[in-house]
Amino acid sequence: MSVPFHLDFVRSRRPAGMPGIILLVAGIVALSGIVAYDLADLQPTQEALQQKVAESQQLLNARHPEPPKGELARFESDRKEADKASMALNRPWKALLDTLESLADRPVALLTLEPDAIKGEIALSAEARNLEAMSAYYRDIQRLDGFSEVVLRTHQTNFQDPDKPVRFRITLKWNVQP
Predict the structure, then answer these.
(1) Helices assigned H by DSSP within 90-169
(2) What is the pTM of this model?
(3) 135 lies in some domain
């Protein structure tokens, strides 16, 4: 026959004795003393660092004072103007000129090209041999990709010249984005 075997894995705890409590209190007091000593030692260092930060801030403000509010508004206005100029310069000018040169075989001479890149508008002044050539040029520009709102603003026939050339002005929207 076998004898039952009993294992007790959980021992019952004995209450802490007086030496354990004294040791715990002594450890807490020692730890508190060390922390207080370190804090007292760091206090002058922290005050010195705060003083250096304040001096550096004053020196920085003396070198670079805060600009007046009117100056900030002027700076913002100048920045916007520079952005507009940059946008105008970054337009695909070569593509525009190539497109207009594709019409070079017409009996029309392009006299001026006045682009407004910010608004995306172009004004053309040209001279055609006759009214039919001007009308054909106008229709051809209307058919080109990248242009919209093509408008014939003015035209004038020069009756003093025996060939009677026609000067005209066309405005259009340039739809190509930079």
Answers:
(1) 93-101, 131-143
(2) 0.52
(3) yes
